[in-house]
């Protein structure tokens, strides 16, 4: 049934979004300097 498949996909998606490695949400603290350097190029990487 299509409804069952949709529910299964949504359940799997929620599991993935709860894992930091999946989509980066929430961003692990160790990766913050990396993302910060990518978004703000005026800040040289490695200064944090």
Secondary-structure topology with pairs:
Layout: H1 2-17, H2 20-23, H3 32-39
Protein name: NADH-quinone oxidoreductase subunit H
Region (Disordered): 1-48
Biased composition (Basic and acidic residues): 39-48
Count every beta strand, where a strand is a DSSP E run of 2 or more residues. 0
Work out the oligomeric state of the chains in this entry: single chain
Mean pLDDT: 62
Helix count equals 3
What can be said about the biggest beta sheet? none
Total tally of structural domains = 1
> Distance between termini?
52 Å
Strand-pairing-aware structural class: mainly alpha
What string, H for helix and E for strand, traces the elements in order? HHH
Unreliable spans are: none
User: Which value, in Å, is the CA radius of gyration?
Assistant: 17 Å
Report helical residue fraction: 55-70%
Region (Disordered): 1-48
Biased composition (Basic and acidic residues): 39-48
Protein name: NADH-quinone oxidoreductase subunit H
Organism: Nonomuraea jiangxiensis
Short structural description:
By secondary structure, the protein is mostly helical. It has helices spanning about 1-15, 20-25, 30-40.
